[in-house]
Amino acid sequence: MSRPGRELPSLLLSHTARRRQRLTAALGTGFLLTVTSLSALAVFFIFYFIARDAWPFFRLEGAREFFTSMRWYPSAGSAEFGARAILVGSGLVTLGAIVVAVPLGVTAAVCLSDVLPFSVRQVVKPVIEILAAIPSVAYGFFALVVLAPLLQQSGGPILGLMVWIIGAPLAALAILVVVDLATDKLSDRSRSRVRVLAFGVLSAVAVAALAVAGKAASGLVISSGTNALNVSLILGIMALPTVVSVSEDALQAVGRDLREGSYALGATRAETLLRTVIPAASSGILAAVILGVMRAVGETMVVWMASGNAAQIPHPWYNLLEPVRTLTATIAGDMGEADHVTGSARYHVLFAMALCLLVFSFACNTSSEWIIRRARKKAGG
Amino acid sequence: MKTVKTMVAGLVAIGMAAGSALAENANKIVVDGSTTVGPIAKAFAEYYMGSHANVNITVSESGSGNGAKSLLNAACDVATMSRPMKNSEKKAAQDAGILPIETIVAMDGLSAVVHPSNPLANLTIEQIRDIYTGKIKNWKELGGPDQLIVVISRDTNSGTYESFETLVMNKEKMGEKVEYVGSNGAIRQRVMSTPAAIGYVGLAFVDGVKSLTVNGVEATPATVTSKKYPIARPLYMYTNGRPKPGTPLQEFITLYATPDGKKIIEDTGFVPVN
After folding, report:
1. What's the pLDDT score for residue B13?
2. So where are chain A's domains?
3. B177 and B90 co-located in one domain
4. How many domains does chain B have?
5. Which of A14, A262, B15, B239 is deepest in the core (most CB within 10 A)?
6. What is the pLDDT of residues A146-161, one digit of tens each?
């Protein structure tokens, strides 16, 4: 063991002073380590205690009914604990929230980072982030008192309008890309004429298709406004700030050099965005999506208030217009009555559900972590 | 040998005396039992302790059956129950040297409510059951408009659900399309804004919705008290013997008959008795 101090005996501390110094250093490091690892420890403790309380359920009732049966009657005399419909319900509203939040959020992020002028961005981004600060019970109240009656009264026309709002830009984009690709190989002279023709024909087809779809949607009657669609919309809006914020950061991180390189090669702004910036930021955007999913899957208050809480799988399964029940809402709603006194399976089944949620979040988190790390490696190499 | 027996007997006697003293401690009232009656007991306890700072009342909700068990074991002074005590329970009480005295503190009545625009005025209890099991799916089947019925129930956690299950469902399970909400107010809100909805609420929550007659009887405090209205039941508090006049226990158990007590019962969504 050689220390630099050896050569300078005059700088050496006395034996006790050195020991004290070492002790305080160890104490300080230990304290900081404890504080830092506290949050990690909390996660382990939560995992441990939830798993410990979930285990008796699987021992008492077995896992088969829980994952395969759709009959959820925890309070009945002959209690049934089939959670399949509830697992599907959680998945369905999460999927719905992704469909709402991802296209909107990623588009908004691209717009914020590369299209809007800096001054506008400075105003718009904080406004979007305010969405994250609204308490979820306020969202739930809005969903229950405003959105649900609205969907019941004029759900059909609203859906018809949504078909146009979402379908028209998508169709326009698709037609542009298809026409562009199809006519790429043609000679310069005939190209413009064919393009105009193809564009006209495809547009007419698209308008006709949208008109049919819109009319079909307008004819739909929503009997109950507290359904999967309502919750998906609200959860999508709630996940929006996460998706926008994280993917905007990812787009910003791409850096000037790549953008300028692309421009220098003669690419337009659209080409730079679609072919260079977004692919370069794709892992960050994926991470943003996963974080948004976690926000949606864990949300409780909104789904408890506005999803209808009917333990059923809609027919067909993607029918968002029917009420569903989610894991989080079931845990929140059934916790009060389910103590040790009123039947232990009823109590432990909620922990089994919590464990499912935890495992899902853990998987999401790990995969997003893995995606980001892989992307970094790729960018570095 | 004899002395040992005497000692044991003496110890048992002392223990029993201590046990009963514990339960009859004048300034401590332990209430246990039904989750339906729980809110009334809690509101009573709060009210009573507000004016009697030296009295301590604890209220647990472990279910009617557990309330009865607690009373039998002298673990509580008041057992709240949403059903009368069974003969088997009364017999067990007798064997344990406990004399359960029944007090009906309130009536629990549930209104079946629909949207004001619904033309229906009456349903039988069997029809309501069939709606909740999912056998009847469309208002058309009951002579109403051609609309799918939106069936709304309280969450399985609530005393209101428990009452409805006992009084209407007759051991049948609710259908998979039934929606669950967290409060009487939320049911009213949903039914008020949903033309095709049906729900059930405590009698105090029928503003803005249409209360149906059940088996031809209107749900009013009078018909609930007279038991003419079918979705109704009395709520009980049981004590060990008649409490001595002037004790906090006696005052607590008779609170339901005072004007303030009646107000509390109405506020918690039940019907006071006379």
Report:
1. 47
2. 93-316
3. no
4. 2
5. B239
6. 999 999 888 888 888 8
Q: What is the pLDDT of residues A224-280, one digit of tens each?
A: 888 899 999 999 999 999 999 999 999 988 888 989 999 999 888 888 888 888 888
Could you say which of B207, B225, B243 is where a domain stops?
Answer: B225
On average, the pLDDT of chain A sits at 85
ipTM above 0.95, yes or no: no
Kindly list the residues from chain A whose CB atom is less than 8 angstroms away from the CB atom of residue B178.
310
pLDDT tens-digit map of B183-200: 888 889 899 989 999 999
For residues B158 and B34, give the distance between their C-alpha atoms in angstroms, rounded to a whole number.
11
Q: What is the pLDDT of residue B151?
A: 94
Residue A305 near chain B (CB below 8 Å): yes
Residues B256-268: pLDDT tens digits? 999 999 999 988 8
User: How much is the CA Rg of chain A, to the nearest whole Å?
Assistant: 28
Residues B200 and B175 in one domain: yes
Q: Which CATH class is domain A93-316?
A: mainly alpha
Residues of chain A positioned with their CB less than 8 A from the CB of B193: 145, 148-149, 152, 225
Q: What is the pLDDT of residues A42-56, one digit of tens each?
A: 988 999 999 988 888
Measured between CA atoms, how close is A60 to chain B, in angstroms? 21
A308 neighbourhood in chain B, CB within 8 Å: 179-180
Q: Looking at the DSSP assignment, which residues form a beta bridge with residue B238?
A: B79, B102
* Three-class HEC string of chain A: CCCHHHHCHHHCCCHHHHHHHHHHHHHHHHHHHHHHHHHHHHHHHHHHHHHHHHHHHHHHHCHHHHHHCCCEECCCCCCEECCHHHHHHHHHHHHHHHHHHHHHHHHHHHHHHHHCCHHHHHHHHHHHHHHHHCCHHHHHHHHHHHHHHHHHHHHHHHHHHHHHHHHHHHHHHHHHHHHHHHCCCCCHHHHHHHHHHHHHHHHHHHHHHHHHHHHHHHCCCCCCCCCHHHHHHHHHHHHHHHHHHHHHHHHHHCCHHHHHHHHHCCCCHHHHHHHHHHHHCHHHHHHHHHHHHHHHHHCCHHHHHHCECCCCCCCCCCCCCCCECCHHHHHHHHCCCCCCCCCHHHHHHHHHHHHHHHHHHHHHHHHHHHHHHHHHHHHHC
Q: Does A148 touch chain B (CB under 8 A)?
A: yes
From B123's Cα to the closest Cα of chain A, the distance in A is 21
- When CB atoms are compared, the residue of B35, B165, B197 closest to A337 is B35
Question: Closest Cα of chain B to A325: distance in Å?
Answer: 9
B155 → chain A, closest CA residue? A333
Nearest residue of A to residue B67 by CA position? A341
Banded pLDDT at A212 (limits 50, 70, 90): very high
Let me know whether B143 and B53 are in one domain: no
Best interface-test mutation with A: which of B153, B174, B179 has the largest number of A CBs within 10 A?
B179
The whole model's pTM is what?
Answer: 0.77
Answer whether A224 sits within 8 Å of B195, measured CB to CB. Answer: no
Distance from CA of A102 to the nearest CA of B (A): 29
Q: Which residue has the higher pLDDT, A323 or A79?
A: A323
